[in-house]
TrEMBL record:
<dbReference type="InterPro" id="IPR001881">
    <property type="entry name" value="EGF-like_Ca-bd_dom"/>
</dbReference>
<feature type="domain" description="EGF-like">
    <location>
        <begin position="157"/>
        <end position="195"/>
    </location>
</feature>
<dbReference type="InterPro" id="IPR000742">
    <property type="entry name" value="EGF"/>
</dbReference>
<dbReference type="Pfam" id="PF07645">
    <property type="entry name" value="EGF_CA"/>
</dbReference>
<dbReference type="InterPro" id="IPR009030">
    <property type="entry name" value="Growth_fac_rcpt_cys_sf"/>
</dbReference>
<dbReference type="GO" id="GO:0007155">
    <property type="term" value="P:cell adhesion"/>
</dbReference>
<keyword id="KW-0106">Calcium</keyword>
<protein>
    <submittedName>
        <fullName>EGFL6 protein</fullName>
    </submittedName>
</protein>
<keyword id="KW-1015">Disulfide bond</keyword>
<keyword id="KW-0325">Glycoprotein</keyword>
<dbReference type="GO" id="GO:0005509">
    <property type="term" value="F:calcium ion binding"/>
</dbReference>
<keyword id="KW-0964">Secreted</keyword>
<keyword id="KW-0272">Extracellular matrix</keyword>
<dbReference type="InterPro" id="IPR049883">
    <property type="entry name" value="NOTCH1_EGF-like"/>
</dbReference>
<dbReference type="GO" id="GO:0030154">
    <property type="term" value="P:cell differentiation"/>
</dbReference>
<comment type="similarity">
    <text>Belongs to the nephronectin family.</text>
</comment>
<dbReference type="InterPro" id="IPR018097">
    <property type="entry name" value="EGF_Ca-bd_CS"/>
</dbReference>
Length: 197
């Protein structure tokens, strides 16, 4: 089976036919499936879509049960958690709906973990980390763009000289470099390449 455009989060099952991994959709399985929009809804109270999955959480005063339903908890209401709570051996603990969030100093509200600055996030070569609330994603470094080449997605150098993304002087030549470009004044001109006289 050959899939010309590849299957980003799935397997190639037939000529240009992808079978997506759970949580993904689209012809090339490159789109995140928003489970929160499905009918019936997977969560009773609140649903938070995540990359390839989702998290359920309950309104204040309710506890999240393993099946995604919310059970009334008078204890939870007294603690006043931002995203609901769970009772463990009679102890009430507030919950955060994502691994990229942690309980704040008050033990009730959730604060973002910056995976990019803590080093928890590992992005492959040519990619930089972008922090989001509750998570992160990897983006191509400046001067590179995401392209589908030889069966996978890669960050490929942008040729600024071809795309006219350079600011070289009219009397300068543009030279493409890995991730960037240089301007060089033509013969008979002097300057930085951005200014030539």
């Amino acid at each position: 089976a050959t899939c010309g455009h590849g299957c980003k989060y799935g397997e190639c099952m037939g000529p240009n036919k992808c079978k997506c991994f759970p949580g993904f959709t689209g012809k090339t399985c490159n789109q995140d499936l928003n489970e929160c929009g499905l009918k019936p809804r997977p969560c009773e109270h609140r649903c938070m879509n995540t990359h390839g999955s989702y998290k359920c959480y309950c309104l204040n005063g309710y506890m999240l049960m393993p099946d995604g339903t919310c059970a009334s908890s008078r204890t939870c209401a007294m603690v006043n958690c931002q995203y609901g709570c769970e009772e463990v051996k009679g102890q009430v603990q507030c919950l955060c709906p994502s691994g990229g969030l942690q309980l704040g100093p008050n033990g009730r509200t959730c604060i973002d973990i910056d995976e990019c600055s803590t080093g928890k996030a590992v992005c492959s070569y040519n990619r930089r980390c972008v922090n989001t609330f509750g998570s992160f994603y990897c983006k191509c470094q400046l001067g590179y763009e995401l392209k589908y080449t030889s069966g996978r997605y890669n960050c490929v150098d942008v040729n600024e000289c071809v795309t006219n993304a350079h600011r070289c002087n009219l009397h300068a030549e543009c030279l493409n470099t890995e991730g960037s470009f240089q301007c060089k004044c033509k013969q008979g001109y002097r300057g930085s390449g951005f200014d030539c006289a």
